[in-house]
Amino acid sequence: MIKSGRTIITTPGHARPLLDESFPCRRVDIAAISAQSGIVAVGDEDVSEVTGNETGMPASADHIIVIESGDGRNSEDLSKIFIDCDTADQGVRWLAQY
Prior knowledge:
mainly beta, Jelly Rolls, four-stranded antiparallel sheet, 10 strands, globular
């Protein structure tokens, strides 16, 4: 089964999870929303796209980030995968398999 969604950052420098509530999954594909001007980074709760303190992996519309459980079970959780961006009202689209 799959679940899809989008997550938007309204305040740059304040990381937020893909989902606020726990959602275990086997795999999640993450891509920046098309036609954005800013940079979106994916990582843990400390991910940052603040200039000079960038952490995580940058996402783009044409480069999908894949996070997959190593054991084939629903051991990843959308509430533990975070994004941050350098421009307000930017974000990602995601597709989770569970």
